[in-house]
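// run 5 | inverse folding | seed 20
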C-alpha cells in the first residue's frame, strides 16, 4: 500500500508540473483516501502552488 500511496502522490506532482489539473486532483484524491496525511503534505508542498487557487483543489485539501 505504501508504494501505491507514493506512486499516486508522485504522479500528481508530475501532472502538476505539466498543469494537468484533472489528473492532479484524481491522484491526490486517491492518495488522500488511502492516507489522510497526504492532505497535510499537499497543503504545503510548493509543487502545487500553480494550482493552489483552483476551487476543486481547495475543496480537496480542506475536506474532512
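// decoded
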Amino acid at each position: 500500500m505504501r508504494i501505491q500511496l507514493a506512486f499516486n502522490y508522485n504522479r500528481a506532482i508530475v501532472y502538476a508540473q505539466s498543469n494537468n489539473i484533472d489528473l492532479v486532483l484524481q491522484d491526490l484524491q486517491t492518495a488522500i483516501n488511502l492516507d489522510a496525511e497526504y492532505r497535510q503534505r499537499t497543503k504545503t508542498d510548493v509543487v502545487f502552488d500553480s494550482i493552489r487557487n483552483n476551487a476543486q483543489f481547495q475543496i480537496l485539501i480542506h475536506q474532512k
